[in-house]
Amino acid sequence: MQEIVERTVVDSDKQITDMKVRYKSGVLKYKQMGYWVPDYEVKDTDILAAFRITPQDGVDPEEAAAAVAGESSTATWTVVWTDRLTDCENYRAKAYRVDPIPGSDNQYMAYIAYDLDLFEEGSIANLTASIIGNVFGFKPLKALRLEDMRIPTAYLKTFQGPATGIIAERERLNCYGRPLLGATMKPKLGLSGRNYGRVVYEALKGGLDFTKDDENINSQPFMHWRDRYLYCMEGVNKAMAETGEIKGTYLNVTAATMEDMYERAEFAKQLGSVIIMIDLVIGYTAIQSMAKWARRNDMILHLHRAGHSTYTRQKSHGVSFRVIAKWMRMAGVDHIHAGTVVGKLEGDPNVIRGIYDTCREVNVPQKLEHGILFDQPWAGLKKMMPVASGGIHAGQMHQLLTYLGDDVVLQFGGGTIGHPGGIQAGAVANRVALECMVKARNEGIDIWNEGPDVLVKAAKWCQPLRAALDTWKDVTFDYASTDSVDYVPTPTPAL
Ligand SMILES: O=C(COP(=O)(O)O)[C@H](O)[C@H](O)COP(=O)(O)O
Ligand SMILES: [Mg+2]
Prior knowledge:
Blueprint: H1 2-25, H2 31-35, E1 47-55, H3 61-71, H4 88-91, E2 94-100, E3 108-114, H5 124-131, E4 141-150, H6 153-156, H7 165-173, E5 180-182, H8 193-205, E6 210-212, H9 225-243, E7 248-252, H10 258-270, E8 275-279, H11 284-296, E9 300-304, H12 309-312, E10 318-319, H13 321-331, E11 335-337, H14 349-360, E12 363-364, E13 376-377, E14 385-389, H15 397-404, E15 409-411, H16 414-417, H17 423-442, H18 447-461, H19 463-472
Parallel strand pairs: 4-10, 5-15, 6-7, 7-8, 8-9, 9-11, 11-14, 14-15
Antiparallel strand pairs: 1-3, 1-4, 2-3, 12-13
Helix pairs in contact: 8-9, 8-17, 13-14, 15-18, 17-18, 17-19, 18-19
Bound molecules: ribulose-1,5-diphosphate and magnesium ion (MG).
């Protein structure tokens, strides 16, 4: 206690000096206010953030980094007397390193350390209110992107982590050694409950493990949620009885209020569903609440990342999806849409690799070429299953398996329901393509190069696979990606 009093007194002198400096120059001086500490020694318990900053013309990059540290921790636009009533030396975030990004237009990677005491335990809302709070609209910067974070073990342990995790999910489904297969219902909107349930049944009967509500299916006039749940679960139960496999359908419980979401989740549980679904747009607190509900009720929790591209897609402004994935593993979801590499939606292979590692590794080491700027040990939080979805089809199975591995849900919406032979044939094509590719890989065949031959051979005796390959052979999505790793700093021992 004595120590703090002393520090406060020393600080008060420093604050007065800082204030005089500021008033004299008439310019904000975050560096002089103590937010730039190049010789700072990072503590094991610090939360670290790496921001891509684009300072306004004429703004010194270190000053800009210090401004980010200030605005995302304790500072306001001017020095305030009340700082002296706090342990402000400790509470100020510290910008401790700024690297120019080669080949960029005045962009820098700024590293900032935050003391653990700045954050409430187990609250993504509180963490993000600082880290991505006001600071993204801050005038000294033209643009700002949160590229990565290091969450220390001390803070991780205050979070629940995935409600179920990959290991328990596989045990519940009794499914090992291969990716899981799913399909998103199409058309996105408009089907009645009975027709919808029919699609679920056919897709599961054909060999998929899961079907899935689309992100914008909730309780519209054409199909209220209870109808959807009842018809879907009828389809699930029938398909399970006929195939002898455990199956599920992600019942989207997204709704306007927590009360509505709990009511829907409870009904899904009563009907025997193994999985429910939420959309990212419900917000971090709602996601954490649903994760706690899922843990209490032995339910797998699927998260659709609806809305993420509004802030993850641009290269110089927003938040990297890798960071969102990290927050979601802390928040406690079991499945997360994480990109496909191939398919209709953008995604650079290196960036996607970094996201998949973040979801499912026990310890994620720094890997600069994958955009992973910090070591991230997960401190016992369970693994989260990535979901590959968006314009994928059976003809890409060798690429999907090579890029994404086994612990993933491969989800074919149009690639099941658009099959010329019908939904069940589409599911058969996907299951056969997957099984033959896993078998080839396990026998040591180089599926990256030989994969297309493997598929063609299997298609000789599997008419639905042949039809799928014929239908989608020309479908490629090779539009330029806007997302790739361009920042490869020299690692320093401090990291
Ligand atoms: O409906 C689909 C996919 O349908 P289809 O298989 O017919 O393309 C999903 O909402 C998107 O995959 C979301 O994208 P992401 O998974 O990248 O978040
Ligand atoms: Mg969708």
